[in-house]
């Protein structure tokens, strides 16, 4: 046993013993438990362990935040418990029995988009950088951009569009089809091919459909019927529907074809029927559904009551993260970008993340003489300002409750200003301070103001309320209100 010996022994006991653990794994910062009886876990005592930065339950898993040393902690825990660790995928499968229908749907959506997020963030940052060099009039008395005065940067701007276009036009449908195939356990290469058929150069680009007269849209003419040859670049719902159809078709054909011809018959039948369904039926339906959803959201963000929308969304986004419903925002953001060339939803998400980090900043100021608390506070602030909110939310803000509320208030105020100024992002980016690079140039000034609000309001409110409650003094209590862990568990 190593330096985590006592904490490992205590954690094993506090989760209900080895017999209460049906599966265990870990990720970058967290231990992931699937407990046979989640009620046996003593959350309050677990969070008092020195190595533990916080806990939360999500997607049927009881997760304990350890930090960057989770590898060593996990190895010691496995050794002490006598259990065998499993992969994250196996842990997720074991956790399904602890989920209700809504949680299962949200988890599935999250698992589809999670592998795509790194590419989407990179694409967003690249588009943001291109906007800075080809749209901001910063040179020759504010009359020219960097691209206009430099051949090098003009070439760089053109080159970087190669990546941006690949991510946000071709990459989204192809990535979704691959990810769904992976999740369903079907042939991933068929998913990739299906995605490519949705974005083929033979088709009329989705961005050109609106400006093309109906009689000039290319058609497949089958004699008995004609089908429009339209691409689904950047479209989310058509790709999901097509990929699900491919997956179920492949599962069906695997059952009915004998093994002798399965290798040939299953792929060809699955792919042909899936592509037909995608272009003849599902694509148009998915396009209509996606456009309807984005139209409703866009109307809320830009309509006469947009500041009310901003206040509500900004205030309640953080609680959505607790329930897992926030995963829907990825699909909505991508649809808004496809339909309107930008999203006004994502800036508020980034502001909510910043607000959570700012509330922890207030706690760090209050607890500046508490070295134990700072071990959690400081890393949480850094990760939150870089877009990772879990340590801040679950390790600090939800533990004390009032910083979480202060962050919600700050995020709500920032949401009002954000919608009032029509602050728009080109793409999904890093959900923290670097997120400004993904904002349209004309909106960077207003977003910077919103960022200041998201920093100052939660910080000041946390300082005031924390001082009133004695945080940072000898009389400090771990929580100054009702224990939120039970409420959070009920929400999930």
List keywords for this structure.
492 residues; mainly alpha; Gyrase A, domain 2; two-stranded antiparallel ribbon; 19 helices; 63% helix; 6% strand; globular; disordered C terminus
Describe this structure in words.
- The protein has 492 residues and is mainly α.
- It has 3 domains: 5-98, Glucose permease domain IIB (Gyrase A, domain 2), CATH 3.30.1360.60; 111-302, no CATH class; 306-491, no CATH class.
- The chain is built from 19 helices and 6 strands.
- Strands 1-2-4-3 form a 4-stranded antiparallel sheet, with helices on both faces.
- The longest helix has 44 residues, at 259-302.
- The chain starts with a helix and ends with a helix.
- The model is unreliable at 477-492 (pLDDT under 50).
Weakly predicted, low-confidence segments: 477-492
Order of helices and strands: HEEHEEHHHHHHHEEHHHHHHHHHH
Report how far apart the termini are.
35 Å
Rg over alpha carbons: 25 Å
Inertia-based shape: globular
Largest sheet: 4 strands, antiparallel
Relative strand content:
5-15%
Binned, the helix content reads 55-70%
The class by helix and strand makeup works out as: mainly alpha
Global mean pLDDT:
86
Number of strands: 6
Number of domains: 3
Q: Figure out the total of helices.
A: 19
Order of adjacent strands in the largest pleated sheet: 1-2-4-3
Structure described in brief:
The chain has 492 residues and is mainly alpha-helical. The chain contains 19 helices and six strands. The protein folds into three domains: 5-98, 2-Layer Sandwich (Gyrase A, domain 2); 111-302, no CATH class; 306-491, no CATH class.
């Amino acid at each position: 046993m190593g330096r985590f010996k006592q904490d490992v022994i205590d954690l094993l006991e506090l989760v209900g013993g080895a017999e209460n653990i049906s599966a265990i794994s870990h990720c970058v910062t967290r231990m992931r438990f699937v407990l046979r009886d989640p009620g046996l876990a003593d959350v309050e005592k677990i969070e008092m362990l020195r190595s533990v930065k916080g806990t939360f339950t999500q997607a049927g898993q009881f997760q304990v935040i350890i930090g960057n040393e989770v590898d060593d902690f996990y190895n010691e825990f496995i050794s002490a418990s006598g259990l065998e660790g499993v992969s994250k995928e196996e842990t997720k499968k074991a956790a399904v029995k602890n989920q209700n229908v809504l949680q299962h749907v949200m988890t599935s959506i999250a698992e589809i988009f999670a592998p795509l997020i790194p590419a989407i963030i990179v694409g967003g940052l690249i588009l943001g950088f291109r906007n800075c060099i080809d749209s901001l009039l910063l040179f020759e008395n504010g009359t020219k951009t960097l691209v206009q005065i430099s051949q090098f940067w003009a070439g760089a701007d053109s080159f970087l569009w190669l990546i941006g276009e690949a991510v946000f036009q071709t990459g989204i449908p192809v990535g979704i089809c691959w990810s769904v195939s992976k999740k369903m356990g079907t042939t991933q290469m068929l998913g990739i091919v299906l995605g490519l058929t949705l974005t083929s150069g033979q088709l009329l680009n989705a961005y050109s459909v609106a400006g093309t007269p109906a009689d000039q849209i290319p058609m497949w003419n089958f004699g008995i019927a004609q089908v429009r040859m339209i691409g689904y670049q950047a479209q989310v719902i058509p790709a999901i529907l097509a990929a699900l159809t491919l997956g179920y078709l492949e599962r069906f054909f695997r059952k009915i074809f004998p093994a002798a011809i399965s290798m040939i018959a299953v792929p060809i039948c699955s792919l042909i029927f899936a592509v037909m369904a995608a272009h003849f039926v599902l694509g148009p339906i998915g396009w209509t559904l996606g456009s309807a959803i984005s139209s409703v959201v866009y109307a809320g963000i830009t309509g006469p009551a947009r500041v009310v929308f901003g206040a509500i969304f900004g205030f309640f986004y953080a609680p959505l993260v607790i329930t897992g419903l926030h995963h829907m925002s990825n699909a909505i953001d991508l649809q808004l970008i496809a339909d309107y060339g930008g999203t006004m939803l994502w800036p508020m998400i980034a502001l909510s993340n910043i607000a959570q980090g700012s509330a922890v900043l207030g706690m760090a100021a209050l607890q500046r003489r508490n070295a134990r608390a700072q071990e959690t506070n400081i890393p949480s602030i850094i990760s939150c300002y870089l877009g990772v909110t879990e340590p801040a939310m679950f390790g600090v803000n939800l533990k004390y409750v009032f910083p979480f509320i202060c962050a919600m208030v700050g995020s709500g105020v920032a949401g009002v200003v954000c919608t009032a100024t029509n602050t728009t992002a080109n793409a999904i980016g890093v959900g923290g301070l670097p997120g400004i690079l993904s904002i349209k140039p004309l909106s960077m000034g207003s977003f910077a103001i919103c960022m200041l609000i998201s920093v100052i309001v939660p910080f000041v409110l946390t300082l005031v309320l924390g001082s009133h409650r004695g945080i940072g003094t000898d009389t400090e209590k771990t929580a100054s209100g009702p224990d939120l862990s039970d409420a959070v568990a009920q929400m999930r």
